[in-house]
Amino acid sequence: MKLSFFPPHFRLIALFVAGLIISTLAQIWSLSWLNAICFLALWAWLYWRGDALLPYVKRFFTLYVFIALIWLTLSWKLSPQGWQLNPQGIHIALLISLKMHLLLCLIHLLLMDISDTILVQAVSHLPLPKKLISLFVLTVRYIALLSETRRKMSIAMRARLSSPLSSSRVLCSNPTGYPVINQSVN
Question: Is residue 186 domain-resident?
Answer without folding.
Answer: yes
